[in-house]
Amino acid sequence: FKLEYNGRYTFSLEYGADHYSWENSDDAPLGGGDDPWQSLHSLSLGAGYNGSVNERLGYSVILGVESGFEKEMGGSFSPSLFAGLHYSLSPEWMIMAGPVVSLAPYGEIQIMGMAQLMYFSSSVPGLSAVIGMPETSISYALTSSVTLKAFGTLDSGRYRLANDSDVKEKGYLDKLTVQTGLSLELVPVEGMT
Questions:
Q1: Residues 85, 176, 104, 79: is their CA dihedral positive or negative?
Q2: pLDDT beyond 60 at 31
Q3: What is the C-alpha separation between 117 and 85, in angstroms, rounded?
Q4: What is the mean pLDDT of the segment spanning 62-78?
Q5: pTM for the complete prediction?
Q6: CA 46, chain centre distance (Å)
């Protein structure tokens, strides 16, 4: 589930849950013969500001906090900051880049770069594409309020394991995954998906 508002000010709220089925948990290198975990949950909240220096050059600053957990949320919060520049190469092409800095619940600082080349078709209204990190996608607006999107993302997450985890009690799991999919985005109010 994801709720997002994009304008001069931005806001996002997202919840996700991944559920796991372990067929041969006895053979898994984690968990001591038991299922390492059944499900992992993530909750994130972000707020930001988009500004412009001139007609072609702009900037974005986003503050966020994310919680990744197996059962208990305590000790799972991770704040983050994104600061990036975007530049319009033409009416159809834009480039954006910047770092994302986050602080893990266990004190480690992680820095990840983000760069994207964006295309907004003038010959096919509603068609747009993004190539880059952490997402590559192609979208087509079916109507002014419904968009179909095919995507591939590189997703990283930190999860606090359960107090009684067989892997590591109150430990942490860093997970890096590639996700692909097809989504239908609804825009109930201009700027909100």
A1: positive
A2: no
A3: 12
A4: 96
A5: 0.84
A6: 11
Residues for the chain: how many in total? Answer: 193
Predicted confidence (pLDDT) per residue in 159-175, tens digit = 999 998 888 888 999 99
Residue 21, Cβ density class (10 Å: 0-12 exposed, 13-18 middle, ≥19 buried): exposed
Q: Which residues pair with 181 in a beta bridge?
A: 151
What is the structure's pLDDT at 156? 87
SS3 59: strand
Q: What is the pLDDT of residue 66?
A: 96
Q: Enumerate the β-bridge partners of residue 155.
A: 177
Q: Which of 102, 62, 65 is nearest to 84 (CA)?
A: 62
| Strand residues in 53-145 grouped as ranges (E) | 57-69, 77-88, 93-103, 109-120, 127-133, 135-141
Name residue, tokens 């975007």.
Answer: 86
Compute the distance between CA of residue 164 and CA of residue 92 in angstroms, rounded to an integer: 53
- For residue 1, pLDDT over 70 is answered with yes
Report the half-sphere exposure of 117 (CA within 13 A, side-chain side).
4
Give exposure, 77-104, as e/b (b: 16+ Cβ within 10 Å).
bbebebebebebeeeeebebebebebeb
51, 97, 98, 136, 162 from 59: Cα distances, Å: 5, 10, 9, 21, 39
Rounded Cα gap, residues 64 and 96, in angstroms: 19
